Predict the structure.
Amino acid sequence: MTEAKTRRAPEARADEPARLILLDAADNVLIAVRAVAPGDLLVIDGAALAAPENVPAGHKLARTDLRAGEKVLKYGAPIGAATRAVARGAHVHTHNLRSDYIATHSREEDAT
Amino acid sequence: MKGYLRQDGRKGIRNVIVVAYLVECAHHVARAIVTRSDDLDVHLIGFPGCFPNKYAARMMEALCAHPNVGGALLVSLGCESFNRSALARAVEASGRPVETLVIQESGGTVASVAAGVEAVRRLKRAAAAEPAEMSLDELVVGTICGGSDATSGITANPAVGRCFDMLIANGAACIFEETGELLGCERIMAERAATPELGEEIRRAVEKAERYYRALGFSSFAPGNAEGGLTTIEEKSMGAYAKSGASPISGLIKPGDRPPGGGLYLLDVVPDGEPRFGFPNIADNAEIVELIACGAHLTLFTTGRGSVVGSAISPVVKICANPDTYRKLAGDMDVNAGRILEGGASLDAVGEEIFELVKATASGRRTVSEALGHQEFILTYKRFEPIGPACLPRAAAG
């Protein structure tokens, strides 16, 4: 989709855990500071696992296994609900997270 | 800091001459006058519509009598609905020199442009003034985010929030906005309101925004937001909300209302009543114009994907949230808040840097977009009811 999705930062090394940000203790998603590739080492709440899939820089990945319908929390606040089960470490985005307010639109739709 | 003292007691941080077209039919002539004047402090503004609109009239009045404006040239075709005499009288009453050029009575394009260039020269001379001492408690600062991505809510927005807290502690008035980009924040925002009644007004304003956007079928969320890692409007909202800092919310205002004193204000930009004229704000600059109409001397603009815009009348300070974007667009940015992600600076340090830049900009230093000649401006049709007494509790009590 975008160049950022495939680009790896030069300093990223497979043997070091990916840098992840937890914005609020209540959150069930983490932010990838740099793009994560499948197999990269993730350390989530002290437990190591291999990244199951690509997560572009700045995007979210699941901190815990999420159930379908479960509220997704970021900044300690609900940002929508999971539309299907999401495994720990997986990418959380428009394919599995929906707004509780107004649905997100893509470039293909128009106002008419 | 130095400011230009105006008759109403406010001070401006620039001494701009505005050339204002009063209908799209006068746009070309007005733009030619600005281009020929070749002066960074001669700005083009205007309203394109031929039908009357109270909001647009009020906005044009507030903009032509903005503290950063020293004088105004009104450019009319001649037959449009806009009440040019009322606007000219209002600008004159504000103590500013004003001239009106009517194209149908001035010999058409060539003669009107020549007359307009002369008028701008006269206005520049008439508006010339020595700046006086100005303090932070006389300053009004707005903030907006545009081209947001997932870094915006982690770096640039909370850094602006830190800067807002410092400005407010020094008595400045700070304005954040776009209730349509605060969906999901209504409860926590209401808890920060100075009074429970104001909290209720804030909740109602966000509900109105949700109804309005729902009726239009879109939230205030661009495809680039999703490409940048934001998934839902409430996620974007929480990131945008970080710009407001941690100060109590002193009031809820609408476009053209001026903060009655220092403190933090929420600007409600979503029209009242049934959706009538389309999207509340068709692009970022429409929101910047409304912040300026509330008296903002300058605007702090955070961007993740990378916006390049500036504005007519009030300088725009660009704060880049994303370090990759900064590397691509460094020539358009004033602050690299992406350093926070890469370990090069703390949120507090970048907040302090923005605070210092606000003071430097208010003292006359050009921002990057200003020096590049960015003077974007959009004003379209809207409709608002006046705010209720609960919206400004301190003013109502005083």
Q: What stands out?
A: The two ends of chain A are 25 Å apart (CA to CA). Chain A touches chain B through 33 residues (CB under 8 Å). Residues 28 and 67 of chain A are 11 Å apart (CA to CA). Chain A has one domain: 3-98.
